Amino acid sequence: MMKHLIFVAATLGLTFPVSAQSVAEVKFQPGNYGTMVSGTITGNEYFDYLLGAQAGQEMFAELNVSDTNGNGVIYFNILPPGSEGEAIYIGSIDGNTARIDLPQNGNYTIRVYLMGNDRDTGKTVGYNLDLSIQ
Fold first, then answer.
1. Is the pLDDT of residue 4 over 50?
2. What is the mean pLDDT of residues 78-97?
3. Strand order in the sheet with 74-79
4. What is the SS3 string spanning 48-65?
5. Tell me, what DSSP letter sits at residue 31?
6. DSSP 3-state percent helix, strand, coil across the chain (nearest 5)
7. Cα–Cα–Cα angle for 7, 9, 11, rounded to 5 degrees
């Protein structure tokens, strides 16, 4: 019974709203429909990129490791407008390249984060995140 309660509590904890440690709004240069952003994540940190889009548009996102002092285990999730943590794309399950049709208008959050030993031991992972909307 106790194991079940711990699992439920841990699962519920993943859906509670959390404030990003760092947030940046992504803007494309005039005439462009995409851009690349770069950064680093250490341990339990995560970085949220906000990107405005319209329902029916397609978002492309690809995350690549640029350098690391660990294993380079980095992922991203895509959260729809108004999300309290629920993702429409989960990189740790679906991989580090996404191409999805967007279901609604608003600001989407692309959350970059670490998992596994890199997160648990406070390693740092540098990354490049290619983003586009069409």
1. no
2. 96
3. 22-25, 46-53, 106-114, 74-79, 89-90
4. EEEEEECCCCEEEEEEEE
5. T
6. 15, 50, 35
7. 65
Amino acid of residue 131: L
In single-letter form, the type of residue at position 65 comes to V
The reported pTM is 0.82
Beta strand 106-114 pairing with 46-53: antiparallel
Q: Is the pLDDT of residue 12 over 60?
A: no
Which of 54, 65, 52, 63 is CA-nearest to residue 26? 52
Residue 110 β-bridge partners:
49, 78
Say yes or no to pLDDT of 52 above 50.
yes
- In angstroms, the CA 82 to CA 61 distance is 20
